[in-house]
Design goal:
By secondary structure, this protein is mainly beta. The protein is built from five helices and 20 strands. A ten-stranded mixed beta sheet has the order 4-3-2-5-10-19-12-13-17-16, covered by helices on one side. Bound molecules: 2-acetamido-2-deoxy-beta-D-glucopyranose (6 copies). The site of one 2-acetamido-2-deoxy-beta-D-glucopyranose has 5 residues, from strand 6. InterPro entries: DUF7705.
Length: 500
């Protein structure tokens, strides 16, 4: 004990002296002082005491109706490892089962019987149980540590009942029935239900492996114990040796005829404020929001691709800003979700082409900052873009243009979807179809900041460029309306976001 105190004093002195010297003699800019620092609470997924949460969304990122006996579709598995090597769980199964009508600390009266508001507040509550606010390393105790909460498993069904009146149109309330030419999947009343959720809280096995999972199905009447034929299924299982290596997150996603459009991602979301796709406070893992100078590192092994409709996102980045470049403030009529995704399924073609400029962004910017217009057929890299769509509330769009789906987000959205192509090589992204796909597991180090700062995103003329801050960074797949049952399976590890 005495020795420990002595060491602590020593650390204190060394740190203070160093800080003193640092402050007096070197005026290093903030960005350079933080070179190589992680933006995440758990850099590289190495922390034994895991923090992971689960969220399920309907087509427009809401809840609408909770699934029977499941509670609100938010849950978490967060624990610390005690000195005697037991896992001390911070979230109980009764916390995970909380649903409308059940009170918890901090719940507002208006949310008590509102499934959408309840889920938002439950996420904040789970975040408060899981929050890590101090560094676990004694020698780092002088560093300002920013609180962080959890990795987020996000599950979403694209089923959309145009007669149910559950989703706004570009953020505006829209009475049912909606008259749209878009062909949304829906088997009939109740097609936008929430899934079942089974949870195995993380256990420490005799061989020193820690293991746990979330799984379930959208087919509420099915018994997943009797095999998965004809039913939808999702699972995320995590595993790590205590004291060694890193967490590996093993994902499975299966569509069915009734649920042909499903998404499953592992997200690093902002620890406060809005993350990609929400007009309200969320909790997450990104304690510092990356802007232009950052890299994203992770290891990805894809075992099953999920069929030709599976838009497997090597990386998906999300944020929010207004068309005038100002940051989002929760006003769903003017806030716009911005997404960009690198799709690595080699079956997904470029819809953008010299004869389909409607699917291309107005221009491309090269790594040396040369702008190439999409009608410059000799130079525009058509094969690098799967699809571009513009926000439905943009007023000064350049024709021809395709507008993004106005329903599948609580506000208008803009999406830039990329495909492997030599022009992305400079940023460490795949340059050829098939790279990183089945049979080619890789560890990627992506210059996401460099690429994202050169992507086209719409802005009103003569407005100051938006400060692009990425509030969600994730990996996973969107099986975009399969015509038969499809299955995807992959594992993800080593995830980090490094500020340069
Ligand atoms: C291990 O430690 C925790 C608290 O640190 C305590 O609650 C638990 O009973 C201990 N378990 C054993 C087996 O000693
Ligand atoms: C739905 O839209 C189509 C084409 O835009 C139009 O012809 C039709 O009259 C509309 N139906 C209703 C009920 O508004
Ligand atoms: C899903 O979770 C349940 C309950 O934890 C478990 O029994 C089952 O093996 C898991 N996987 C499948 C495919 O059902
Ligand atoms: C799945 O559906 C097919 C076609 O409807 C049917 O022939 C088959 O028996 C079903 N399988 C199970 C296990 O229910
Ligand atoms: C920028 O790169 C392109 C090829 O990508 C090249 O043709 C062009 O000359 C370069 N421009 C400058 C200013 O270096
Ligand atoms: C290409 O598009 C720009 C507008 O983006 C236009 O000014 C120019 O005339 C077009 N060039 C050709 C050859 O069509």
């Amino acid at each position: 004990m005495k020795m420990e105190k002595y060491l602590l004093v020593l650390f204190l002195c060394v740190n203070l002296c160093f800080i003193g010297v640092n402050a007096r003699f070197f005026k290093v800019p903030w960005s350079r002082r933080h070179k190589g620092i992680s933006a995440l609470g758990d850099p590289g997924m190495k922390r034994d005491g895991l923090r992971i949460a689960f969220e399920a969304w309907n087509n427009c990122n809401g809840v609408a109706h909770e699934a029977p006996d499941t509670g609100s579709p938010r849950a978490a598995d967060c624990f610390d490892v005690s000195r005697n090597l037991t896992l001390l769980h911070r979230v109980s199964e009764s916390d995970n089962k909380l649903g409308i009508g059940k009170k918890f600390n901090g719940l507002s009266a208006e949310a008590l019987y509102d499934p959408n508001l309840y889920a938002i507040e439950k996420e904040l509550y789970l975040g408060s149980l899981c929050e890590v606010s101090k560094s676990s390393k004694p020698w780092q105790f002088l560093k300002t540590s920013k609180p962080w909460q959890f990795w987020m498993v996000m599950l979403k069904s694209g089923n959309f009942d145009t007669k149910a009146g559950l989703c706004p149109e570009n953020g505006k309330p829209k009475p049912a029935p909606i008259n749209t030419t878009m062909n949304f999947p829906c088997f009939g009343e109740g097609c936008m239900n929430q899934p079942t959720l089974n949870h195995q809280p993380t256990q420490l096995l005799a061989d020193g492996t820690m293991k746990g999972w979330f799984n379930g199905t959208y087919d509420l009447d099915a018994d997943i114990g009797n095999g998965l034929a004809n039913i939808s299924f999702y699972e995320v299982a995590w595993e790590k040796k205590l004291g060694f290596g890193r967490w590996v997150f093993k994902h499975k996603l299966k569509t069915s005829i009734k649920y042909p459009w499903l998404m499953l991602y592992l997200r690093a979301d902002a620890t406060k404020g809005f993350s990609g796709g929400y007009p309200y406070e969320t909790r997450g893992m990104l304690h510092t929001l990356p802007r232009t100078n950052f890299k994203v590192k992770f290891s990805l092994e894809i075992k099953k691709g999920g069929g030709p409709q599976s838009q497997f996102y090597l990386l998906d980045i999300g944020s929010c800003w207004k068309n005038n470049g100002k940051p989002c403030d929760g006003d769903v009529l003017t806030d716009v979700t911005r997404y960009s995704e690198m799709i690595i399924n080699p079956d997904v073609p470029a819809w953008c082409s010299p004869t389909q400029l409607v699917n291309c962004p107005p221009y491309h910017i090269t790594p040396n900052n040369t702008k190439i217009l999409r009608n410059d057929t000799a130079n525009f890299p058509y094969g690098a873009y799967h699809y571009y769509c513009a926000p439905g509330n943009a007023k000064y769009l350049e024709e021809p243009v395709s507008l993004c789906d106005p329903y599948s987000n609580p506000q208008a959205q803009e999406i830039v979807q990329l495909l492997p192509h030599p022009i992305w090589g400079e940023y460490g992204y795949p340059t050829e179809k098939g790279q990183g796909w089945i049979g080619d597991p890789r560890t990627w180090v992506l210059d996401t900041g460099g690429l994202a700062s050169r992507l086209y995103f719409y802005q009103d003329p003569d407005t100051l460029p938006a400060k692009r801050k990425w509030t969600s960074i994730d990996v996973g797949t969107e099986i975009f309306v399969s015509d038969k049952e499809e299955e995807a399976e992959w594992s993800l590890s080593d995830f980090d976001v490094i500020l340069l």
